[in-house]
Design goal:
Number of strands: 11
Shape: elongated
Radius of gyration: 26 Å
CATH superfamily of the largest domain: von Willebrand factor, type A domain
Number of domains: 4
Largest sheet: 7 strands, mixed
Distance between the termini: 53 Å
C-alpha cells in the first residue's frame, strides 16, 4: 500500500480535525467517494456528529435510513457491521430496538419503521415480535386509509363488461337475468321463467383480458418510506381478482416478491433496504411479464439514481412506452414525504411522455383510477404531491 493511500485512510479514521496536519504532509485531497465515506463516518464518530438537525436525541430522524444505505454501498460488509453496531450504541437505535418495552410504547412512525427495517437482520430474538407488531400498526393504518378507495377506483375502471347475445352457461349474468325476469315468476311452477338471458362477454372473463400491474420498487437506502407504502398498495392490488399483480424489488440485484403479497408485513420483510441501484436490470426482468402491452400498467417507484447503464435504462423505458404499456414513474418519498430523485433522468423520462412525479399516498387511488381508464394524468401530476400536504 503506497503512502498516499495510507494517509487518506488515516484521514478517514481520524476525521476532519486531522485534515490540516495531513495536508501539510502533502496528502492529496480526498476523492468524491472518500468524501461520502467521511460524511457517513462523521455522523457517528465526530464530536458533534449525529442525525438530528434540531438537536433532539430521538432516533426516528429519517436521515438514518438514507445514511444506512450509504454505509452499505460505500464499505465492505464486515466494516458495515461494525459501523452499524456503533451507530446503534452512539445514536440511541440500539436501546430502541433491543428493548421491546420501549418499542411497544412508541408512537407508530413511518420514518422510524423504515430505519428499523433497514436493520431487521440485526434485531435480537426477544425483540422480533415487538418490532413486527410495531410495523403491523403502521401497515394497518395505511391499509385503513387506502384499501377501500383503491378497490373502489380499480373496480370502477376495469369493470366495463359488455353483455353478449351469445349464450354460454359460464358467462351467464345470473343477477341481471333474475332481476330483469322477476315479473315472469310462475306461481304454479314456483320459479322464474325467463324470457331473456343476459351473458357477459367471454373475453372479459379471460385471464388474458385482465390488467397486469407491475410494481418495480427500488430498495436502495433512500427508499424506506416509499417501500412501506408500496408494500401495502401491492397487497391490496394483489387481492383483487380483476388484476394480475407482479411485485419486484431491486438494488443491484432483483428479488421477485409476488408470492409474499398475501401479507404486507411479510412483503416488507422481503425487502433488503440499502445498497446500490441498477434500474436497467430490473426493467429487463419486469419486461418478461408484459403479455398485452395495452393492458399493462408499469409503475417504477424509485429515486432514479441509476448506478447501472443509464443509456440502456432510458432506451428500455422509451421502448416500453412506445409498445403501448402505460408507464408511470413515482419518485421516492423521503424526509417525511418530500420527493427525492435524480432530476436529470426524470426530465429525460418526461420527454418520452412518461410522467415522473411524487404522489401523496392518499392520492394513489385517484391515480390508479385515471391510468386504468386511459386518462391523461398531466394535470393530476402537478398537484399529486402538494395535495398531500
Amino acid at each position: 500500500m503506497d503512502t498516499t493511500v495510507q494517509m487518506q485512510r488515516w484521514r478517514l479514521i481520524l476525521g476532519n480535525e486531522s485534515e490540516k496536519r495531513l495536508m501539510d504532509m502533502n496528502m492529496p485531497a480526498l476523492s468524491e467517494e472518500q468524501l461520502l465515506m467521511d460524511n457517513a463516518l462523521a455522523s457517528i464518530y465526530n464530536k458533534n456528529g449525529g442525525f438530528s438537525d434540531s438537536g433532539g436525541k430521538g432516533p426516528s430522524n429519517p436521515q438514518i435510513s438514507r445514511w444506512l444505505g450509504d454505509v452499505r454501498t460505500l464499505f465492505d460488509k464486515e466494516i458495515v457491521k461494525i459501523i452499524q453496531n456503533d451507530a446503534m450504541t452512539r445514536c440511541g437505535l440500539k436501546q430502541l430496538i433491543f428493548e421491546p418495552e420501549l418499542l411497544e410504547n412508541a408512537e407508530p412512525d413511518i420514518s422510524l419503521a423504515s430505519s428499523i427495517l433497514t436493520l431487521k437482520d440485526m434485531i435480537p430474538k426477544r425483540s422480533k415480535d415487538s418490532v413486527r407488531e410495531f410495523i403491523r400498526k403502521i401497515v394497518d393504518g395505511i391499509n385503513q386509509l387506502l384499501e377501500q378507495d383503491i378497490k373502489r377506483a380499480v373496480t370502477a375502471a376495469v369493470n366495463k363488461r359488455e353483455h353478449s347475445p351469445i349464450p354460454s352457461a359460464s358467462a351467464l349474468d345470473y343477477k341481471m337475468t333474475i332481476r330483469r325476469n322477476l315479473k315472469h315468476y310462475s306461481p304454479k311452477l314456483k320459479t322464474i321463467v325467463p324470457e331473456h338471458f343476459y351473458f357477459f362477454e367471454r373475453a372479459a372473463r379471460s385471464a388474458a383480458n385482465k390488467w397486469t400491474i407491475i410494481l418495480d420498487i427500488d430498495q436502495s437506502g433512500s427508499m424506506g418510506e416509499s417501500v412501506i407504502y408500496s408494500s401495502v398498495i401491492s397487497c391490496i392490488l394483489a387481492s383483487m381478482s380483476a388484476l394480475k399483480t407482479r411485485v419486484v424489488a431491486f438494488d443491484t440485484n432483483i428479488i421477485d416478491l409476488t408470492d409474499k403479497c398475501s401479507d404486507p408485513v411479510d412483503l416488507l420483510y422481503g425487502f433488503q433496504l440499502g445498497g446500490g441501484t441498477d434500474i436497467d436490470k430490473s426493467v429487463v426482468y419486469c419486461s418478461q411479464f408484459i403479455e398485452n402491452p395495452k393492458k399493462t400498467l408499469f409503475f417504477l417507484i424509485s429515486d432514479l439514481c441509476e448506478g447501472g447503464n443509464r443509456a440502456a435504462f432510458l432506451r428500455r423505458m422509451e421502448e416500453m412506452k412506445a409498445s403501448g404499456v402505460t408507464v408511470v414513474c413515482l419518485l421516492a418519498l423521503a424526509d417525511g414525504g418530500k420527493p427525492y430523485y435524480d432530476e436529470n433522468i426524470a426530465k429525460k423520462l418526461s420527454g418520452f411522455g412518461i410522467p415522473c412525479f411524487a404522489c401523496a399516498p392518499q392520492k394513489l387511488p385517484e391515480l390508479l383510477g385515471l391510468v386504468l381508464k386511459g386518462r391523461d394524468i398531466a394535470e393530476f401530476s402537478k398537484t399529486a404531491y402538494n395535495a398531500g400536504k
